[in-house]
Amino acid sequence: MKRSELNDEAKTRLNYSRKLVWRKIKNREKEVTSMSDLTKEGLRYITGRLLKEAVEATEESREDKTDLFKAGRATAYYEMLDILKTELDIRDEDLHEYGLNINLERALI
Asked: Is the pTM of the predicted complex or chain greater than 0.85?
């Protein structure tokens, strides 16, 4: 159906919906730009938490090698940390500051 074929109420609803979508897009852009406010300290904290959880998941996986869920969970943590380590390394960040100056494959797989 073409816009010209819509009645006034439908046109009003369509315009309202478009405005809501546009506001959501604008708000999302603000959220993304506010991510740049994430400090190194905050990123170190997040990385530390991920490392702690990854070690626990790896230990659980090693204790019960038949549980595929535990193995998948440990692998997921490894993948996240590997990506994070690569991105920090590309940006010439000191991996030691983030606790990522380790061989993740040896430690978590």
From this structure: no
